[in-house]
Amino acid sequence: MFEQAPIYARLVEEQGDVPTQVRQEAERIEDDLRRTMQPLQNLSGRTAPQGRQPTHLMP
């Protein structure tokens, strides 16, 4: 892939593969969040709809 885009290959050589690093960090954060939320899902017996907080967490 990099041989087809010499400018990108040079940037990766100089700065590192930033898109790959960002993707890996996002996956790590997603895994951490999933592990953190798992006990809450087990307590409620169901998962909350996406985009909304579970009602048992609201004040």
Describe this structure in words.
- With about 60 residues, the chain is mainly alpha-helical.
- It has helices at about 5-15, 20-45.
- It is rod-shaped and about 50 Å long.
Element layout with pairings:
Layout: H1 6-15, H2 18-44
Give the key terms.
single chain; 59 residues; mainly alpha; 0% strand
The gist of it:
By secondary structure, the chain is mainly α.
Give the overall average pLDDT: 78
Q: Could you list the spans in which at least 5 consecutive residues all have pLDDT below 50?
A: none
Main pleated sheet: none
Classification by helices and strands: mainly alpha
**Counted beta strands:** 0
Strand content: under 5%
The tally of helices reads 2
Radius of gyration: 19 Å
Helix content: 55-70%
Output the helix-strand order. HH
Q: Span from first to last CA?
A: 51 Å
Shape: rod-shaped
